[in-house]
Design the sequence.
């Protein structure tokens, strides 16, 4: 069965069971501080499990892109070495939100696997939770009894808390689970040892394919469990593993999901998959990682130096390094795999197809820059090897190479072992641990449980219409971090505060109770679809109503920049072309930043045109036309621009100003004339094929021009209030250049005269023409004089000195013949004489200079020079 059919059969099976099919959510997370990437199918639905919002459908099915490379679920180091863990994989799932529970979940899973997919019952095992004394939980007999109706009891195994109790994190919804495992070994192998004994033992042909999670508890901050009012089903089946079973192969990499990519790697590298272990590992690593990196870029997460971007950069670098070491690829090649990938997966995930060129460019540039790093690292490593006296390179040196230059440690170890040297691995681990401890201490955060005051499922946002509202606190919790100390997070029944999102910063403001007690709201953010207000203190009277007031200055200036961002987006697509896509934006009160795909620098003329375009729309006084509740389909039909990698609901808000129409939840001005004026401040590159424009609006423009004007007036005054200051400045520059030229000429003449005088002053000491003298010339003058005299005599020893701007300078010239015959060295001379002027220097044996900060030592230095020729 082809992989496409495997996927569609799953979805249509559950559609028949009244599930609604939803597309995969973006993999990169925006409003969840505990997680960078979706690492399981349930993540996009967290808000439903947490009870923060109500799902439209109580039954859902999907295939979700997951990435397991950081945090609680991190499979990165396995990938390539085994045949069934990936960084990016698809998780097929069916979901019940307070609808059906264990009975249906188990029956349907069984029906799908054995009847629809036709998997032989004799290769399947299932597990149930055995209970846990720590948590005071009994064995999940309910699941056991249900399984008994489908599968013989000797194939139902009991599993411990580690394997059979699923938790999304340290806190939150959780519950027992039942896993389904397959045993795809040969009959011969099976006869030797029963599959039963290999379940959950990391055997590559006895693997878990599906996990059915029965969410029925909530884990609190103190570690205890409470029973949830609603019970949910969360299942996740590894798509690539399922394909392996259905295509009768022994490895995920032998399925049609991977073989086209592997063939392409073979062609490009001229190596064959399946011959030697090291090459195979490298090929698997690359085939896997190119998918993870390509999907992240398509979702809007570019490789970078921090956070999620850094995780992506590290994945790509791991692939480059395996190619570099085991496939002998010293030039970029991974970007060339994007083509097959997009042909292969572009139908199920059109973002890969539509952004192919950008993905290729970004990957290629990352490859190039990391290969340069590797080159540099090799040079540094060679130096370290030369300096190493015994046979072991210290952990600190290796760590520096790793930390400062990004040189991979296993590559260091490999190269050292090729040269017969050892690496102090323990020392390296120690340094690495120290660094981890430092960053953990800096980012550690303690989160208390919510204290619920009022049971109110959905918090309403009223901030589009008002900056003030009467609110009630429904829940709060304390969070403690090293950086910010204690903070309180407050949630209200309704709120006028806009939470950070869509690039726009969160609102600030205050809460006031009837007695006049005030608490400041320092920031507002969204987490799993709840609006959270940050305050340093808890209000004194938490059960009383408050007046919640948003700071209007902060809000209005942000709105001005947000609307300008939309107009800028429209201008870019009109002037540069339709290929322009938004790749990121930041909207603050004092500035805006907009990143977009475009393959060349935007010229000054184009920038002017863009600025004019936006300002024309500001002058046009376009009113805000918003529609808060449009079905997604309809919005797209009307031409609204949607951002790829953004999670949208079934209905969306559209924001229109004239012909600019976007899906947007942000805050905007009521009329474009409120923006006053738009000014571009800079244009630059962020990555290959991604440009950035920074701009200002409103008061910031006024401040910008008044500052410019202040500087201009000052310059004009300096130019004696010339009528045409630019012309006056040009005249000054020309005059300056002319004077410079004259001075150079004069100095040359002077050096010529001095040279003739000096010739007369040369002393004969032991057959050497010797002179030590202070002159009134600059460094260049001393050198000219020395070289000219040098060209006339074959046995010259000169020590010339000068004093310039309170500093001393020595120049020593020794004829090459003398250097050879008398064993003299100018470098050594200046080093020694430099001591008199409190300085140092060096150079070549026949000419060297030294600078120092003590001009009064010059005469001593001149005196001491004689010693060298005696
Ligand atoms: P394993 O023990 O094999 O690592 P898991 O217990 O981590 O699996 P779950 O978290 O229960 O797996 O995820 C649900 C399903 O997703 C698994 O049954 C498996 O089929 C699939 N899966 C999990 N991790 C990966 C991965 N790194 N690559 C591919 N598929 C995976
Ligand atoms: Mg795992």
Sequence:
């Amino acid at each position: 069965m082809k992989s496409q059919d495997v996927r569609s059969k799953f979805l249509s099976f559950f559609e028949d069971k009244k599930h609604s099919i939803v597309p995969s959510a973006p993999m990169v997370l925006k409003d969840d501080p505990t997680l960078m990437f979706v690492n399981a199918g349930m993540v996009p639905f967290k808000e439903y499990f947490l009870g923060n919002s109500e799902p439209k459908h109580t039954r859902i099915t999907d295939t979700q892109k997951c990435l397991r490379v950081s945090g609680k679920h991190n499979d990165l180091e396995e990938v390539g070495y085994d045949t069934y863990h990936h960084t990016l994989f698809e998780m097929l799932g069916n979901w019940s939100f307070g609808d059906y529970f264990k009975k249906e979940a188990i029956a349907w899973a069984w029906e799908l696997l054995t009847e629809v997919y036709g998997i032989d019952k004799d290769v399947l095992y299932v597990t149930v939770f055995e209970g846990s004394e720590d948590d005071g939980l009994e064995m999940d007999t309910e699941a056991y009894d249900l399984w008994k109706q489908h599968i013989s009891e000797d194939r139902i195994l009991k599993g411990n808390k580690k394997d059979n109790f699923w938790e999304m994190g340290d806190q939150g919804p959780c519950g027992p689970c039942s896993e389904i495992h397959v045993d795809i070994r040969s009959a011969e192998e099976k006869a030797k040892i029963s599959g039963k004994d290999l379940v959950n033992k990391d055997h590559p042909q006895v693997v878990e394919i599906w996990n059915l999670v029965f969410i029925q508890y909530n884990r609190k901050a103190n570690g205890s469990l409470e029973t949830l009012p609603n019970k949910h089903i969360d299942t996740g089946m590894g798509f690539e593993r399922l394909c392996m079973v259905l295509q009768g192969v022994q490895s995920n990499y032998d399925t049609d999901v991977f073989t086209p990519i592997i063939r392409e790697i073979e062609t490009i590298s001229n190596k064959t998959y399946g011959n030697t272990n090291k090459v195979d590992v490298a090929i698997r690593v690359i085939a896997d990682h190119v998918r993870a990196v390509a999907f992240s870029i398509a979702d809007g997460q570019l490789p970078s130096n921090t956070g999620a971007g850094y995780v992506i950069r590290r994945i790509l670098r791991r692939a480059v390094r395996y190619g570099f070491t085991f496939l002998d690829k010293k030039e970029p090649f991974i970007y060339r795999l994007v083509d097959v990938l997009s042909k292969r997966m572009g139908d199920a995930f059109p973002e890969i197809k539509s952004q192919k060129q950008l993905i290729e460019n970004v990957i290629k540039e990352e490859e190039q820059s990391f290969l340069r790093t590797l080159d540099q690292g090799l040079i540094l490593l060679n130096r370290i090897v030369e300096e190493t006296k015994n046979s072991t390179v210290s952990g600190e040196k290796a760590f520096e190479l790793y930390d400062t230059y990004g040189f991979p440690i296993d590559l260091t170890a490999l190269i050292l072992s090729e040269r017969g040297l050892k690496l102090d691995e323990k020392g390296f681990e120690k340094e690495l641990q120290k660094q981890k401890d430092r960053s953990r201490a800096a980012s550690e955060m303690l989160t208390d449980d919510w204290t619920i005051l009022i049971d109110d499922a959905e918090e309403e946002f009223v901030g589009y219409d008002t900056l003030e509202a009467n609110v009630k606190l429904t829940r709060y919790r304390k969070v403690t971090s090293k950086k910010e100390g204690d903070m309180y997070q407050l949630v209200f029944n309704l709120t006028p505060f806009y939470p950070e999102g869509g690039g726009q910063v969160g609102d600030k403001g205050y809460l006031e109770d009837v007695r006049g007690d005030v608490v400041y709201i320092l920031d507002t953010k969204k987490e799993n679809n709840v609006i959270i207000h940050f305050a340093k203190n808890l209000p004194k009277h938490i059960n009383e109503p408050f007046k919640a007031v948003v700071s209007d200055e902060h809000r209005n200036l942000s709105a001005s920049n947000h609307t300008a961002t939309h107009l800028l987006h429209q201008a870019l697509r009109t002037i540069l072309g339709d290929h322009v896509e938004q790749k990121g934006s930041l909207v603050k009160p004092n500035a805006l930043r907009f990143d977009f795909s475009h393959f060349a620098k935007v010229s000054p003329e184009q920038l002017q045109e863009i600025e004019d375009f936006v300002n024309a729309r500001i002058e046009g006084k376009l009113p805000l036309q918003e529609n808060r509740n449009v079905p997604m389909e309809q919005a797209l039909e009307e031409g609204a621009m949607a951002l790829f990698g953004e999670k949208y609901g079934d209905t969306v808000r559209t924001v229109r100003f004239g012909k600019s129409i976007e899906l947007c939840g942000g805050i905007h001005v009521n009329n474009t004339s409120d923006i006053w004026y738009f000014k571009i401040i800079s244009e630059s590159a962020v990555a290959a094929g991604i440009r950035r424009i920074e701009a200002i609006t409103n008061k910031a423009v006024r401040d910008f021009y008044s500052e410019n004007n202040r500087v201009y007036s000052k310059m004009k005054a300096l130019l004696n209030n010339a009528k045409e200051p630019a012309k006056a400045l040009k005249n000054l520059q020309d005059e300056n250049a002319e004077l410079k030229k004259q001075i150079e000429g004069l100095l040359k003449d002077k050096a010529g005269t001095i040279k003739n005088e000096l010739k007369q002053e040369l002393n004969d000491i032991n057959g050497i023409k010797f002179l030590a003298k202070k002159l009134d010339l600059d460094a260049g003058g001393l050198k000219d004089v020395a070289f000219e005299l040098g060209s006339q005599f074959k046995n010259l020893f000169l020590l010339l000195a000068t004093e310039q701007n309170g500093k001393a300078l020595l120049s020593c010239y020794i004829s090459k013949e003398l250097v050879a015959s008398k064993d003299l060295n100018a470098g050594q001379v200046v080093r020694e004489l430099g001591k008199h002027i409190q300085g140092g220097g060096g150079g070549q044996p026949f000419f060297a200079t030294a600078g120092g900060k003590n001009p009064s030592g010059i005469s001593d230095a001149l005196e001491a020079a004689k010693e060298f020729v005696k």
